[in-house]
Design a protein that fits this description.
With 753 residues, the chain is an alpha+beta fold. Helices cover 19% and strands 30% of the residues. The strands form 8 sheets. Strands 6, 9, 10, 11, 13, 14, 16, 17, 21 and 22 form a 10-stranded antiparallel β-sheet that branches. An 8-stranded parallel β-barrel has the order 23-24-25-28-29-30-31-32, surrounded by 5 helices. The radius of gyration is 27 Å and the shape is globular. A hairpin with a 4-residue loop joins strand 1 (3-6) and strand 2 (11-15). Bound molecules: (2R,3S,4R,5S)-2-(hydroxymethyl)piperidine-3,4,5-triol.
Length: 753
């Protein structure tokens, strides 16, 4: 059983394979957090609630304020005495803020309910853990805690679903107005935990355009450590994730408490260290500009947060999240299939293409073994640059004579699949769509909306807008056999005014926008169930588990430089599976940073994600072109290992020495792929020692070097690559990596003998 209730002690105990989460109910009925961490066998007690240190209101009503200041709440509310970051804030008809929740009842069910209109984790088909006797145990279970505010007549259901195998617990809250007042919800976060401070440091993923998800770590001081987005999308700047780690945590050791939000809009992550040295970690929809009308009988469902605890460093957290997202978030039928190796014309042509040019790129690519042609931005309306035509989803017949079908037919005639780019959420002021519906964009009365990339954002909260745009996309997809869609979004939301909402409903717009987006993508994958959908937002601006519910892969970054990508992909893979990271080989000098890197290294780095090319093969030097069939064969050889295996980060190039190394190990430990990149060559140093991970310590492995170009001599002798090694040696003594020149790389394939 994953969830137990001890009615004597009024303790709920949620167990995963390696962790325990405990919730208590005080005599007054406050629902409080007791413990999260390493698995414990017993429902010990409520001593962590410190009920004697801060007098309970039942015994000392005059000091209720002191008590609320300190109690570790499960779902903290605002306005009645807890001054820390709140999860829930409601205003009554007098616009007075104050909510107090008391325990009412509970239910425990097998499986997990899906959230309506929102992405949410689902129990997998191979759910549970199979014991030696063949019995399945540890299936997904859900605890619902029913809480009430008797004054407001509000009922809050806290949902906890336990995924034992992955050591993940999902949380969300359903808020229902059973009273008679018109309430306003000004804060509805998804999950919160309170614990004693242990010298925690916060790990987050920060970035900007072309530099997404760089790993940050900072100590917690008294007060709030906060990240988040108010841009209407997840953002390049902050992933919806925060982990608290104990001092000295590494990839392999230390304790980690992590939360990630399964949501694609505004979000907040806060770690607050209180006056009593307790720490609250909380995540959910960002409360800025959020105000949701909650009339009698109405409900609000928060997005889901996924929590995990690791007693074995960040690496274990990573692998738990990878398994969880692969097994319980991604629904696409492409999830377990090798993705077609694609070529995208964006960096090869930008807007300057026609049917013949696309066909020529495809033909050369096909000859080299590429499996799908993706036509990017510029095929519709009067779109010859990025100044116009968004919304005019009609084929530009000057570029593509006779429409889409003849081009797709030619591409398919080569034996390739075909994919196409859209940016359905946007409108160019210079577009027929805008001329017909100038009020469809988000805008504030009497104010010209701020342009970004010369475009504005459509108000997706409006049904008629979604209907029209979706039907245009639908018609294009029906006009020819299309296998893949890249759904782009190239600016964030500003001027968030909605013409279909009354003044008191404007605070709903940001969330309604995201619900509208989810509805459109749900429709798309329902109408086209075999479609391979790749989300994108100016690169990786909307890279989150919410979008993964709709698309199994997301374009990771507009920065395609292999060296820059090392950091971006390291940060992304901290919480998201490799199979979700759109990664391509592009031309050199690189379009973003001007760097020239070896073609092999560009391919080795792109192998860590979904593999493809972002160039014109005909324009490549002959020696690079000749390598493509081999690179594609390598992708097919290792795709399963990379996509489904366990990921281990071995060395990061900006820590200490300038080389980078990671591994993918099959679940049964029978094979592994080690990727090694020398970022800067260094003379007169020992060869690098990579301490491998995840291998079978008792097994001998054969080691084969891939892409074995000439090694750089270190001036004293030659480097002799290892051809075999025992698992324990390779992990504890290390594996020698060759001294290489700048940007050189190697792949090593390990196979258990
Ligand atoms: C941003 C994307 O990330 C690029 O790959 C490309 O599709 C452009 N948008 C097109 O406008």
């Amino acid at each position: 059983m994953a969830i137990l209730y001890d009615s004597g002690k009024r303790i709920f105990k949620l167990d995963t394979c390696h962790t325990t989460y405990m919730i208590g109910v005080t005599e007054e009925g406050y629902v409080a957090h007791i413990y999260y961490g390493r698995k414990v066998a017993h429902t010990g007690g409520t001593y962590l609630l410190r009920l004697h240190e801060y007098p309970q209101p039942l015994r000392l009503p005059r000091e209720k304020g002191t008590f609320l200041n300190a109690l570790p709440f499960e779902y903290p509310t605002a306005g009645v005495g807890d001054y820390r970051e709140a999860a829930l804030d409601l205003a009554n008809e007098q616009n007075q803020h104050g909510t107090e929740l008391f325990y009412d009842s509970y239910s425990i069910e097998k499986g997990k309910p899906q959230l309506t209109g929102l992405p949410s984790a689902f129990p997998g088909k191979d759910d549970g853990v199979r014991r030696e006797d063949g019995m399945l145990t540890d299936m997904v279970e859900t605890l619902s805690l029913f809480l009430v505010d008797p004054v407001l007549g509000v009922k809050v259901t806290l949902l906890y679903s336990v995924f034992p195998k992955e050591d993940v617990i999902t949380r969300s809250a359903l808020i229902r107005n059973d009273g008679s007042q018109k309430l306003v919800l000004t804060r509805a976060l998804s999950a919160s935990i309170d614990m004693d401070d242990r010298g925690f440091e916060a790990v987050t993923l920060a970035g900007n355009w072309a530099r997404e998800r760089r790993i940050q770590q900072r100590p917690l001081n008294f007060g709030k450590t906060q990240i988040g987005s108010t841009r209407g999308e997840t953002s390049h700047q902050a992933a919806p994730f925060m982990a608290l780690v104990t001092p000295g945590t590494t990839q392999n050791s230390g304790e980690v408490y992590a939360m990630q939000l399964i949501y694609s809009g505004n979000h907040t992550e806060v770690a607050e260290k209180s006056q009593f040295s307790s720490v609250r970690l909380i995540t959910g929809i960002h409360p800025e500009n959020f105000a949701w009308r909650l009339g009698p009988g109405e409900c609000f469902q928060t997005p889901e947060a996924a929590l995990t605890y690791s007693a074995e460093g960040l690496g274990r957290m990573t692998r738990s999240y990878h398994d969880f997202i692969r097994g319980h978030i991604i629904r696409s039928p492409w999830k377990d299939k090798p993705r077609p190796v694609l070529i995208n014309n964006w960096e090869a042509t930008y807007f300057d293409f026609d049917q013949d040019k696309i066909y020529e790129i495809a033909k050369d690519a096909h000859a080299a073994g590429v499996e799908m042609m993706v036509m990017d931005d510029g095929w519709f309306g009067a779109r010859n640059d990025d100044n116009c035509a968004l919304g005019d989803w009609f084929v530009n017949e000057t570029k593509l004579k006779g429409g889409l079908a003849p081009l797709v037919e030619r591409i398919r005639g080569l034996g390739m699949k075909f994919g196409i780019w859209f940016e359905p959420e946007m409108i160019s002021p210079d577009s027929d769509l805008c001329r017909a519906h100038p009020d469809w964009m988000l805008h504030i009365k009497d104010r010209n909306p701020t342009l970004a990339r010369n475009q504005c954002v459509l108000d997706l909260s409006r049904k008629e807008v979604r209907e029209e745009i979706y039907s245009r996309v639908y018609r294009i997809l029906k006009s020819a056999p299309i296998d893949y869609v890249k759904w782009d979004m190239n600016r964030t939301l500003s001027d968030v005014g909605g013409m279909s909402l009354p003044p008191e409903g404007q605070g709903e717009l940001m969330h309604r926008y995201v619900l509208g987006l989810y509805e459109m993508q749900e429709r798309l994958i329902t109408d086209f169930p075999d479609l391979l959908l790749e989300n994108c937002s100016g690169g990786g601006g909307r890279f989150d588990a919410g979008m993964m519910y709709y698309s199994p892969q997301i374009w990771c970054s507009d920065d395609t430089d292999a060296i820059e990508r090392l950091r971006i992909q390291e940060g992304t893979s901290l919480i998201y599976p490799m199979s979700t990271m759109g990664a391509h080989v592009s031309k050199c000098p690189n379009e973003q940073v001007g760097r020239v890197t070896p073609f092999d290294t560009r391919a080795n780095v792109a192998l860590a994600g979904t593999f493809g090319y972002e160039l014109n093969i005909a324009a490549l030097p002959a020696e690079d072109r000749e390598k493509i069939p081999e690179q594609i064969a390598r992708y097919h050889r290792y795709h399963g290992l990379v996509a489904d295996g366990d990921y281990y980060r071995i060395h990061s190039w900006d820590e200490k020495e300038p080389w980078d190394c990671w591994m993918n190990v099959s679940k049964d430990k029978s094979e592994a792929l080690v990727t090694y990149v020398q970022v800067l060559g260094r003379p007169s140093t020992n060869s690098r020692l990579a301490f491998l991970r995840g291998l079978d310590p008792d097994a001998a492995y054969t080691i084969t070097e891939e892409c074995g170009a000439a090694h750089v001599e270190n001036g004293y002798g030659s480097f002799v690559p290892q051809t075999e090694g025992c698992g324990d040696e390779l992990m504890h003594m290390g594996m020698l990596m060759p001294p290489l020149g700048d940007f050189q790389s190697r792949l090593y394939h390990l196979v258990r003998q």
